[in-house]
Design goal:
The complex is a heterodimer of chains A (296) and B (183).
Chain A (H helix, E strand, L loop, with lengths): L12 H30 L5 H33 L4 H36 L10 E8 L7 E4 L12 E3 L4 E8 L4 E5 L6 E6 L5 E6 L4 E6 L12 E4 L11 E9 L2 E6 L8 E4 L5 H8 L2 H6 L1
Antiparallel strand pairs in A: 1-2, 1-12, 2-5, 3-4, 3-12, 4-5, 6-7, 6-9, 7-8, 8-11, 9-10, 10-11
Chain B lengths: L9 E2 L2 E2 L3 E2 L2 H17 L15 H12 L9 H12 L5 H19 L5 H21 L7 H6 L1 H25 L4 E2 L1
Antiparallel strand pairs in B: 1-2, 3-4
Helix pairs in contact in B: 1-2, 1-3, 1-7, 2-4, 2-7, 3-4, 4-5, 5-7
Chain lengths: 296, 183
């Protein structure tokens, strides 16, 4: 559609001034935007307040949408479950029998663990989650991978707490509002997580690449010991995440490690648990600059 | 008796007799629809890839190109401010980019006052591509090559989505000028 005739403001002084002021305001707006952008580069949490307030305001709506979405998904699952139900059933029964045997074995190992730990005077504390909530939204159109979770400061959630699903690590809390918080997902390109290979002590960093995969960077360079299909779990280093939670499975090998796919895809996740920081002392020590530690 | 042409009493915006436009709706609908567009991607699945087109930006472009002269040049500032609250980009990104976009379209329009839909689509496509690439570059994280590759589906989807958004905006525009008010 062609612009209406209002652009040519003819001889009307008022119309001319209006048009001119419009340009000026637009230019100033762009400048303010540039300044704010610069500010948020140096201080990313500077505008966290208005952001979490806005997220709190829409969280009732997003919560409802998330509920509807997950229930419709489970409806689809139950329909598709009827497809080839007989053969699936037989296969599941076989798997179930094997799993029962493995479970008994695991129980024996657990009892032995308890006995040995008792001998060594080690104590295990039961870790209870701070809150259990739904993933209620995400920044679906941005390059950054954030999700929103329906629990905030009112539920005791604090910045840095690990977020996990029944399958594995999802991410950690970045900003908190009063009843919603922002989660930095593992796949975000700013996320780094210390991991180790399940079963041995090959330690590495899992960095988000921003394209739904993680980059496994081995700490000890040399011959790459990884193989496709290796499972990586959290190592507990850094103090944020408790050790032994599943993170990613290697799908491709590179020179300094590999590329891995996350175990707990946030898109397939309904409820998540927000857990307390594993070792708060270690976590705060990791963020303290070296100079301060020296003078202490 | 001579019958009147039935359509003479009404047009696309409803009956012309005893009805008039609602000034509230006529002014509010463009702004509200853009705000809604900024908000909608939040409802999407927490996917591991950026998949949803920047709907707020697309709606802004569509209003600006389908209905020139309706949104003031400075509309990018307040609307971008709202978008920044939800988009996940660093604060100030949408304020800057949306304001720039409005200015750029203004200058394009000075050169090409008469355009067909194809030129509009081309302009919008180009601007969306620049917007998403700037989003990758200025995301607050280190821009990585895999993230750029992961952007491609979203880029394609956004460019292909523009005609649909433009049609929806045209529908909104009809709704905007519907004669609701009883005189």
């Amino acid at each position: 559609m062609a612009p209406s005739g209002t652009r040519r403001s003819s001889y009307s002084r008022r119309a001319q001034y209006n048009l001119f002021t419009g340009y000026i305001i637009a230019g100033i707006g762009a400048l303010i935007g540039a300044v704010l952008l610069g500010l948020s580069f140096f201080q990313p949490s500077f505008f966290g307040g208005p952001r979490s307030a806005a997220q709190d305001a829409v969280s009732p709506a997003t919560e409802t949408a998330a509920t509807v979405r997950t229930s419709s998904k489970s409806l689809w699952d139950s329909i598709s479950g009827y497809y080839r139900a007989g053969s699936k059933n037989a296969e599941l029964k076989r798997e179930m029998e094997l799993a029962r045997i493995r479970l008994e074995e695991a129980e024996a190992v657990r009892q032995e663990n308890v006995r040995l730990k008792g001998l060594l005077d080690l104590q295990d504390q039961e870790r209870t989650p701070v809150a259990v909530a739904r993933l209620i939204g995400s920044t679906a159109s941005s390059t950054r991978r954030f999700a929103y979770v329906g629990a905030g400061e009112d539920d005791g959630v604090a910045v840095g707490m690990p977020v996990r699903s029944p399958r594995g690590v999802v991410g950690r809390i970045l900003e908190t509002g009063s009843d919603s918080s922002r989660v930095l997902l593992l796949t975000d390109s700013e996320s780094v997580l210390p991991v180790r290979r399940a079963g041995d002590e090959v330690v590495a960093f899992a960095e988000g690449r921003g394209d739904s995969l993680l980059r496994i960077k081995l700490i000890n360079l040399g011959i790459n010991p990884l193989a496709v299909g290796d499972l990586f779990v959290t190592s507990g280093a850094g103090g944020y995440y408790p050790p032994g939670i599943a993170v990613a499975i290697v799908t491709e090998l590179t020179d300094d490690g590999g590329v891995a796919r996350i175990v707990s895809d946030p898109a397939a996740t309904d409820f998540v648990a927000i857990e307390p920081i594993f070792e708060p002392d270690a976590a705060s020590g990791a963020t303290t600059p070296v100079e301060e530690e020296l003078t202490d | 008796m001579e019958r009147m042409e039935p359509r003479a009493r009404s047009d696309a915006y409803g009956s012309r007799i005893n009805r008039s436009h609602s000034p509230l709706l006529a002014n509010v609908i463009p702004w509200l629809s853009i705000l809604l567009g900024s908000l909608l991607p939040v409802f999407a699945l927490a996917a591991a890839l950026p998949m949803v087109p920047p709907l707020g930006f697309l709606t802004l472009l569509a209003w600006r190109l389908v209905r020139p002269g309706l949104l003031p040049v400075w509309a990018g500032f307040p609307l971008g401010l709202f978008d920044d609250l939800f988009s996940g980009q660093p604060f100030g990104f949408a304020i800057l980019l949306w304001s720039m976009t409005m200015l750029v379209i203004e200058f394009v329009e000075l050169r090409l006052p008469w355009r067909a839909f194809w030129q509009d689509w081309f302009t919008a496509g180009l601007l969306v591509v620049v917007y998403l690439l700037a989003g990758w570059l200025l995301s607050g994280a280190t821009p990585t090559l895999p993230a750029l590759v992961a952007l491609i589906p979203q880029l394609l989807m956004s460019v292909l989505m523009f005609p649909i958004v433009a049609r929806i905006v045209a529908r909104f525009d009809r709704l905007r000028l519907m004669r609701w008010k009883r005189v």
